C-alpha cells in the first residue's frame, strides 16, 4: 500500500504481474476504514491462488455478503431498479412459472442464451440465481476482461471476477463441468453483444456446435433461455459500421481491436468478427427486462451425442431454435405487462410496499 498513485504506477512498470487499484476518497490508513476489504481487492485482480499457477476454477472463492451488497448496489443497483427484471422458467410439464423453479439446482447445468447489447442482462441473471437458489453462476467471459489494466479504482469488470467470471477456454469449460457448476455461455459472444443496428434479438452463432459434445461428456443439463429489454432502455445510434466511417475514431477502433485477446481465431462466419468497441446509444425512459428459461434438456445417457456429430449438430440447432422461440414469446407477452413502463412501476412502488415483487403479465396465458 502506497500513499502516492504516481509511485504505484512507477513500481507497476518495474514489477512483474503487478496491478494497481487506487482509492481516491480514502486516507493513508486504508485497511482501518469502512468499505475497504483487502480480500476483495485480491480476488478482483485474480491474485488469490491455491497453487503456484492461477486457476480460475479452483481458486474461486464465493462472494461475501458485503461483496454481494457492493456489487449489486453500487455497480448495478441503478439499472436493476430502473428495469425491474422479471424471470420466468419452464417446468418439466412445459408450464411457465415466475421464478427459477424450472432450472435444476443440481449441476452440472449449462445456461445457453442470447447476449443483449453490452451484456446489460448479466446482473439481473446472476442476482436472480443468487437470491432465489443460492447458486453462483460461473460465466464464461471474453479473455479481454482478464487482461491486466491500468491503475484504477475497483470497477464493474473487477466485480465480474469476484462473482465467478472465467475466461472462455475449452480447459476452463471442462473444469467447470467437472465441478458440477452452473455455467453461463453465450455462443454469440462479443459479436452478439456488440451487434449492429437492426440485429436486436438476432442470434449470431457459429455455424458448427462448440459446446454440445462437451456438455454430453459430463451429462450436463442444458437450459436454453431468451431475454429481451435492450430496446426498451436505449436506442443504438452508432454501431461498428458507423464508427468505422468516422475519421480518427476508426483508427482508434482498429488499434484497440489489434491489441485485444481473441476467442474466435480460425472460426468462420460473422461471429468471428469480435471487435471490441463502445457503441453510441441514446437512453430511453426505461422499460423492463424479461428472462425466460426454457425446458431443461438432458444430455445424460445419450451416447449418440458423443459418437455422432450429426446428432450433436441437431441438438445445437434445436437449442438455437428454442432460444429464438423464447425471445419471440417474451416480445409478444411483454405487451400485456401493465408495469412495463417506468412511470407505472414508480407509481406502484409509491402506493404499495416497496419490498413487494412488482406484478407482470401472467405466463399461464401462454
UniProtKB/TrEMBL annotation:
**What EC number(s) is this enzyme filed under?**
2.3.1.-
Q: What is its main location?
A: endoplasmic reticulum
As for subcellular location, the record says:
Endoplasmic reticulum membrane
InterPro entries the UniProt entry points to: DAGAT
Give the record's keywords alphabetically: Acyltransferase, Endoplasmic reticulum, Transferase
**Has the keyword Disulfide bond been applied to this entry?**
no
Which GO terms label this protein's molecular function in UniProt? diacylglycerol O-acyltransferase activity
> What are its GO biological-process terms?
triglyceride biosynthetic process
One GO location term (cellular component) = endoplasmic reticulum membrane
Give the record's membrane topology: Multi-pass membrane protein
Enzyme group, top EC level?
A: transferase
Any one Pfam family here would be DAGAT
**Family the UniProt entry places it in:** Belongs to the diacylglycerol acyltransferase family.
- PANTHER family with a match to the protein in the record: MONOACYLGLYCEROL_DIACYLGLYCEROL O-ACYLTRANSFERASE, TRANSMEMBRANE PROTEIN 68
Protein name per its UniProtKB record: Acyltransferase
Q: Which organism is it from?
A: Saponaria officinalis
Amino acid at each position: 500500500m502506497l500513499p502516492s498513485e504516481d509511485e504505484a504506477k512507477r513500481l507497476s512498470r518495474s514489477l512483474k504481474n503487478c496491478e494497481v487499484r487506487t482509492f481516491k476518497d480514502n486516507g493513508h490508513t486504508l485497511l482501518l476504514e469502512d468499505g475497504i476489504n483487502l480480500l476483495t481487492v485480491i480476488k478482483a485482480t485474480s491474485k488469490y491462488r491455491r497453487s503456484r499457477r492461477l486457476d480460475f476454477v479452483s481458486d474461486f472463492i464465493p462472494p461475501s455478503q458485503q461483496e454481494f451488497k457492493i456489487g449489486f448496489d453500487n455497480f448495478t443497483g441503478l439499472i436493476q431498479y430502473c428495469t425491474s427484471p422479471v424471470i420466468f422458467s419452464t417446468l418439466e410439464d412445459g408450464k411457465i412459472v415466475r421464478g427459477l423453479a424450472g432450472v435444476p439446482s443440481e449441476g452440472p447445468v449449462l445456461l445457453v442464451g442470447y447476449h443483449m447489447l453490452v451484456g446489460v442482462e448479466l446482473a439481473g441473471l446472476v442476482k436472480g440465481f443468487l437470491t432465489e437458489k443460492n447458486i453462483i453462476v460461473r460465466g464464461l467471459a471474453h479473455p479481454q476482461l482478464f487482461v491486466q489494466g491500468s491503475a484504477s479504482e475497483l470497477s464493474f469488470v473487477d466485480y465480474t471476477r469476484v462473482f465467478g467470471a472465467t475466461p472462455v477456454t475449452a480447459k476452463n469449460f471442462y473444469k467447470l463441468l467437472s465441478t458440477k457448476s452452473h455455467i453461463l455461455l453465450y455462443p454469440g459472444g462479443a459479436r452478439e453483444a456488440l451487434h449492429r443496428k437492426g440485429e436486436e434479438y438476432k442470434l449470431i452463432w457459429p455455424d458448427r456446435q462448440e459446446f454440445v459434445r462437451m456438455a454430453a461428456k459430463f451429462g450436463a443439463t442444458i437450459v436454453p433461455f431468451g431475454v429481451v429489454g435492450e430496446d426498451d432502455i436505449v436506442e443504438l445510434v452508432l454501431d461498428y459500421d458507423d464508427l468505422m466511417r468516422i475519421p480518427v475514431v476508426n483508427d482508434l477502433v482498429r488499434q484497440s481491436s489489434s491489441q485485444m485477446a481473441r476467442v474466435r481465431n480460425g472460426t468462420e462466419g460473422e461471429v468471428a468478427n469480435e471487435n471490441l468497441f463502445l457503441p453510441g446509444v441514446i437512453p430511453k425512459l426505461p422499460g423492463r427486462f424479461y428472462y425466460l428459461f426454457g425446458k431443461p434438456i438432458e444430455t445424460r445417457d445419450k451416447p449418440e451425442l458423443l459418437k455422432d456429430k450429426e446428432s450433436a449438430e441437431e441438438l445445437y440447432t434445436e437449442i438455437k431454435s428454442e432460444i429464438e422461440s423464447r425471445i419471440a414469446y417474451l416480445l409478444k407477452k411483454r405487451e400485456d405487462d401493465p408495469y412495463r413502463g417506468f412511470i407505472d412501476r414508480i407509481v406502484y412502488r409509491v402506493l404499495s410496499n416497496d419490498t413487494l415483487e412488482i406484478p407482470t403479465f401472467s405466463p399461464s396465458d401462454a
